Amino acid sequence: MRSFVAALAVILGLLLSAAAVPAIWVDRSIVQEDGFVALAAPLGKDPAFQKRLATAAVGSIDAGASLPGPVAQLVRPVLEAAAASLTGLPEYPAAWEETLRKSHRLNFADPATLPPEADSATSLTLDVAPLVALATKQISDKVGVPLEAPKQTLVNLGQSSQRQLIERVSAYSPVGYSLALGAGVAFLLALVTAQRRWKVLAVIGLGGLGLAGLWTVASGWVSGAVTSTASGNEMADLFKREFVAAAAAGFASWILAAAVAGAILLAAGLLIRVIGGSARRV
Fold first, then answer.
1. Does 201 lie in the same domain as 148?
2. Which residue from 57, 160, 182, 198 has the highest number of Cβ atoms inside 10 Å of its Cβ?
3. What is the pLDDT of residues 61-111, one digit of tens each?
4. Which residues face 124 on adjacent strands?
């Protein structure tokens, strides 16, 4: 009976772990602002994405609304030059990080709190106002005419109906901590009730290795499914492709850690078995 309870507890612990680890990773790396910024920050270094983002940011500056027509025409070449040089400015990394933070707050906020110009059905909306402010300052310094930067400049990315996916992810991911706690209790119960604890350690370790393989396959499948759908927006597709690659790489480090932990537990269980068997023979 004790062996049966221990086996059920191990199975339950592995099932809970299978869902807990991805959920916790999503919460820490995507739902939480700092994790999202750390994950997406390298995207700002991609040359192709930099160029398109800078062009979109500078293109949103309406010099004609603040300057007379002839002067606005003279500013146009300066705008084009600003788009080309924006990403090379020392302030660009900080502006890109602030763009990510503002965009995260916009996308993970309650839809009822979004501004009217934000499409609540869009999966990802970048607020490039910090980049626009940086470009505006650069242009103002060059032409000697003060330009006012908007407080919000939205670039819509993704397809409609993906807002619901973000809401589901936000609701699901915090559950991972409870699942992880449940898995820990189940594994502890298995160790307490088992007649041969080395078997429990070995099976948990073997299960951890199996979960690592399962997560690897699932991560590849999800990445492929997401990147295979085209939105028709070149910048959106580029952002999606690079973000998915960064997310897959980030989760891969967690998979590796789980595989290492599983291998250690498996080795520990087998070692205890060998040592215990030798001690009984003596």
1. no
2. 57
3. 655 445 555 555 555 566 666 666 777 778 888 888 898 998 888 888 665
4. 157
Report the sign of the C-alpha dihedral through residues 110, 228, 155, 239, in that order: positive
Of residues 192, 182, 191, 249, the one with CA closest to residue 216: 249
Please list the residues that pair with 160 across neighbouring strands: 122
Q: Which domain holds residue 76?
A: 42-168
pLDDT (tens digit per residue) in 108-152: 866 555 555 554 445 567 788 888 888 777 777 766 666 677 777
Domain boundary among the residues 149, 168, 187 is at 168
Phi, psi of 116, rounded to the nearest 5 degrees = -55, -35
Distance of alpha carbon 94 from alpha carbon 130, whole angstroms: 9
Residues 26 and 92 in one domain: no
Segment holding 125, helix H or strand E: strand 122-127
DSSP state of 156: E
DSSP, residue by residue, 99-117: HHHHHHHHHSS-GGGS-TT
Q: Which residues contact 206 (CB under 8 A, 6 or more apart)?
A: 262, 266
d(CA 156, CA 193): 55
**Locus of tokens 């788009």:** 83
**What's the pTM value of the predicted model, to 2 decimals?**
0.81
Distance CA 208, CA 216 (A): 12
